[in-house]
Amino acid sequence: MQLKLHNLLFILALNIIALLFSCKKKEDNSPITISTTEAITTDSTSFYKESFRPQFHFSPEKKWMNDPNGLVFYKGTYHLFYQYFPGDIVWGPMHWGHATSKDLIHWKHHKIALFPDKLGLIFSGSAVIDINNTSGLGTTQNPPMIAIFTYHNMDFEKAGKINTQSQGLAYSLNEGETWTKYKGNPIIGNNNLKDFRDPKVFWNPETKLWNLALVAGDHAQFYSSKNLIDWTYMSQFGKNRGAHGGVWECPDIFKLKVENSEEEKWVLLISINPGAPNGGSGTQYFIGDYDGKSFKTNQKDIKWIDYGTDNYAGVTYNNTPNNERIFIGWMSNWLYARNTPTQNWRSAMTLPRKLSLEKIGSNYVLKNTPIQQLKTIKIPEYSKELLSVQANNKIAFEYNHLNQSQFHFKALAKNLKLTFSNEVNDSLVLIYDHKINSFSVDRTHSGIVNFETDFGKLIHKTETPNLTTPTLEYQIILDWSSIEIFLNGGVYSFTEQIFPNKPYTKLSIQSNEDQEIKNLSIAKIKGIWETNSTSKPSKK
Ligand code: FRU
């Protein structure tokens, strides 16, 4: 025991000495250098190391991806299906791609799950496990995984018909590996609506029925069923509620407990495109009540789940352990999704995030924050209980895991200006100012921005009335082509794509006031696709 203690003390002393050598302090105005022992290769032939390839976010091995679909947990595995076009790196005839994960961090690619057929392309939708075999499509010993999705009929579209979209069903008896389309498709036909899509199906334990929400242009519709095949229309919501800058897409509806109370509320997510606060696509939410038939709210204001530009079509998992509400969004925006400067593949998903509901004053706020499991791939590099910042003085960090830009920053602090930059003067600037209650992200000089006029045009500024105290918890997560920012545990989040010409290797911290930053921690985030790791994508 004593020996162990000695050993521990010795290791601790070594670590302190190592830290003193690796972090140059600020007094002499030189940057604090954070070094790493790992040598990183950016050899373009090595796996998943192409320019801008997300290192710890899900992206398809190749070709085009958009919305997450069919998020369902079954037998210890999280399934992620997604809108996929295997023919190009722009949107095209939609299939459902498929990936799985045991921890929502490491992903394994699988074969394409759903292919277009004579009824149409396979647009967005959702999946459940029919545990009691209510559909009769499996058995109770081997319950079917059921996907309900939108068919988009191209022949109808070419013929100028309006009712191109209907809802179809497919089932799998081998955990999503292979699928059979239901022979009676479509299961919900179209009554002459131009936009009629993106069904979210779920089991409602209160009514003991299957429920489904879909969108029809400017409103959501709710349906109910005993067997997942025959659906009864119940009600509609939203014609005169919320934002209507664009068509409604990808609904989701679920119940959450309000933190620190016994109250429970229903949350309705609706993506819209265009019409988001910072341009193009975005996801709004409504807090209200739902009885299995209709959704009601007295919410007057418009609420957004994310104030960045790149979190769209996000929906949540069915069937999770402990009923956790886990959300994944598509990390792009229809304004410029087709033109981002990647090769071979296009776009990624947000980190999976846990949703929770807090009442701030009289206002319900849907918070989203990265799942706990993220800590399993964090490698702590620098931490400081108290770091003094003088008004308008800079503290500069240089982190040496060059060509990496995988970065995690957490701190409790007041007003901050954080600038990420690189050797070719690209810079990404984040500013919080409590006096004017505003947070802004400036990616106008963040790297390659000129692939689309709307991408780097604006500074994204957001009013932040729900940040009620001057000190905030900042959590910032940087991957090779994205930044995700969470303030006060996700009361506000901002998700943005970025395409720096060289990896950011510097961070400067400034403030317009003297302050002590508390509990500052900086960590590297390990890549999830490393060749020697078991997470290497493989095809079954
Ligand atoms: C949202 C969306 C959905 C549609 C899918 C088509 O991004 O437009 O409404 O089902 O993409 O790929």
Automatic annotation (TrEMBL):
Residue stretches making up the Glycosyl hydrolase family 32 C-terminal domain: 403-522
InterPro entries named in the record: ConA-like_dom_sf, Glyco_hydro_32, Glyco_hydro_32_AS, Glyco_hydro_32_C, Glyco_hydro_32_N, Glyco_hydro_beta-prop_sf
Keywords attached to this entry: Glycosidase, Hydrolase
Gene Ontology BP term (one): sucrose catabolic process
Pfam family, one: Glyco_hydro_32N
Gene Ontology molecular function: sucrose alpha-glucosidase activity
PROSITE patterns recorded: GLYCOSYL_HYDROL_F32, PROKAR_LIPOPROTEIN
Any one annotated GO CC term: cytoplasm
Domain Glycosyl hydrolase family 32 N-terminal, chain residue ranges per copy: 57-363
Keyword Hydrolase set for record: yes
Family classification: Belongs to the glycosyl hydrolase 32 family.
PANTHER family (alphabetical): EXOINULINASE INUD (AFU_ORTHOLOGUE AFUA_5G00480)
Record-given protein name: Glycoside hydrolase family 32 protein
Organism this protein belongs to: Flavobacterium aquariorum
